[in-house]
């Protein structure tokens, strides 16, 4: 039943093609993943999610895949009036440098700092683990905060009004770097570039 919910319309060939184009413009080769159903089962998705595209990244190690999910209903927004897309870049956790550790089973999210008066785009943000009691997650949040290249890329995405969340989560042998946006059928190419930058920074 879960897979029927994820794939009741099947993978979207046009969406795959658009994502492949966006990646090619950033010198990343990709192709439709043959194991998209296995990839969908690998993660716990919010209720109302569909995995609409799954790409294998070619010669991009330690980056392995890019997934696009769509979330509709009450989970996406109050009263179910919002529809979110999530773009997820998967990184082979075995390839991470020692400084990134291996025991941080917690999501680390970019939390915008309120702009003056609480209006307009955020001027800054900070990384915060979903569980501050996990010491390694706190250290990784601090390392991300100190990476100027990562900060610059993520700040550009957070300033887009469509961006709802940017996060990194460790799940088993994979680290998932993700951004969720609303009001879009395909992701902002700037967001895809930021995902690639952050994902690569984990193994540099």
In short:
By secondary structure, this protein is α+β, with helices and mostly antiparallel strands. 29% of the residues lie in helices and 31% in strands. The longest helix has 13 residues, at 189-201.
General description of the model:
The structure is a single chain. By secondary structure, the protein is α+β, with helices and mostly antiparallel strands. Strands 1-2-3-4-8-7-5-6 form an eight-stranded antiparallel beta sheet. The radius of gyration is 16 Å and the shape is globular. The chain is 29% helix and 31% strand. It has six helices and eight strands; from the N terminus they run ααβαβββββααββα. β2 and β3 (63-72) form a beta hairpin. Residues 1-9 have low confidence and may be disordered. α5 (148-158) packs antiparallel against α6.
Keyphrases for this structure?
globular; disordered N terminus
Tell me the layout of helices and strands.
Layout: H1 2-7, H2 13-24, E1 29-32, H3 36-41, E2 49-58, E3 63-72, E4 83-92, E5 108-113, E6 124-129, H4 135-146, H5 148-158, E7 163-171, E8 174-182, H6 189-201
Strand order of the largest sheet: 1-2-3-4-8-7-5-6
Helix content: 25-40%
Mean pLDDT: 84
Order of helices and strands: HHEHEEEEEHHEEH
Radius of gyration: 16 Å
Uncertain spans: 1-9
What overall geometry do the principal axes of the alpha carbons give? globular
Number of strands: 8
Largest beta sheet, briefly?
A: 8 strands, antiparallel
> Structural class given helices, strands, pairing?
alpha+beta
Strand content: 25-35%
What distance lies between the first and last C-alpha atoms, to the nearest angstrom?
40 Å
Question: In DSSP terms, counting alpha (H) and pi (I) runs of 4 or more, how many helices?
Answer: 6
């Amino acid at each position: 039943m879960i897979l029927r919910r994820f794939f009741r319309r099947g993978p979207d060939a046009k969406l795959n093609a658009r994502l492949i184009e966006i990646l090619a413009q950033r010198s990343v080769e990709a192709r439709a993943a043959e194991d998209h159903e296995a990839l969908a089962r690998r993660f716990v998705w919010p209720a109302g999610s569909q995995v609409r595209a799954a790409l294998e990244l070619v010669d991009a190690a330690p980056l392995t895949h890019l997934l696009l999910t769509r979330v509709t209903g009450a989970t996406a927004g109050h009263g179910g009036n919002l529809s979110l897309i999530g773009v997820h870049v998967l990184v082979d956790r075995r390839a991470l440098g020692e400084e990134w550790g291996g025991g941080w089973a917690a999501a680390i999210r970019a939390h915008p700092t309120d702009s003056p008066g609480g209006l307009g785009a955020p001027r800054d943000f900070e990384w915060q683990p979903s569980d501050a009691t996990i010491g390694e997650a706190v250290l990784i949040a601090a390392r991300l905060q100190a990476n100027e290249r990562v900060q610059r890329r993520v700040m550009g995405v957070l300033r887009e009004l469509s961006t709802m969340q940017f996060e990194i989560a460790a799940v088993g042998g994979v680290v998932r770097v993700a951004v969720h946006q609303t009001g879009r059928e395909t992701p902002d190419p700037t967001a895809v570039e930021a995902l690639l930058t952050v994902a690569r920074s984990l193994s540099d």
